[in-house]
């Protein structure tokens, strides 16, 4: 791959995905910052990512990507809005555009439309590559963790690694907000939500795990977004022990501080598992349908990922079309044992 030339001061990175996806990109963003220390780095992402981007030392600016055809995270914006976005991006006269989004079938033409002097990124077989920059597009890795996959591009570009730890910068005000919600005690965060129903373990199973931990003297906090209030309430209703329902009561940063303060997190394979990994809080993760080798945290001793092998994994369905065998195959007792083991290890 050709070396990057000097003088690249305007750099744009495309990674328009969800929380866990962006956290897994933070090691690659640090490598980009280390290799191009004088560059102004702009992240193009989904609206939610603005608050994370503003805290990352590896990012200087955030630009919101409108809903784009072929990207499922949000509905496609009107054509006029799409054209205005592309025109605004082209006017920035980027020196380098970096595609950290994925395999490239949909997003490589979008990246090329930014009009950068140089383009680089990933391309699966058959995915388009901007003509003059074909050699700066590496084959999308089919194996390895998401962190390692993304670092494959920065490695190929000659950008120095600055570790593989995920970044989730907390402030003292976040910790104060979390302390006001939790108070004293040894807490377990139980997070039953996930963006896709196919990624959710059953609420009554989370409740059974929470009860078992409460019987061992742990205090239980149930977390979730405002849209997950009913789901979290169903966990609380299925429990015998009291629990603190925090659904919809914390922003992203307070939630992170709650995780940092906790003795353990029990959750689905979702963004919160990556927050726990970033903050070093032990976790037990039930991985329903996901590609475990790709998304499991690197520290397998601290973050215990439980999953049941079925032929249809990894799953591309938002809602399981069968009996959700991958989730049903993870027994409550297995999760309780993993949680107790994690708590004993961390004492």
Automatic annotation (TrEMBL):
One of its GO terms (biological process) is lipopolysaccharide core region biosynthetic process. Transmembrane segments: none annotated. GO terms for cellular component: cytosol. Keywords: Glycosyltransferase, Transferase. It holds the Pfam family Glyco_transf_9. GO terms for molecular function: ADP-heptose-lipopolysaccharide heptosyltransferase activity. The keyword Glycosyltransferase applies. This is ADP-heptose:LPS heptosyltransferase. It comes from Rubrivivax gelatinosus.
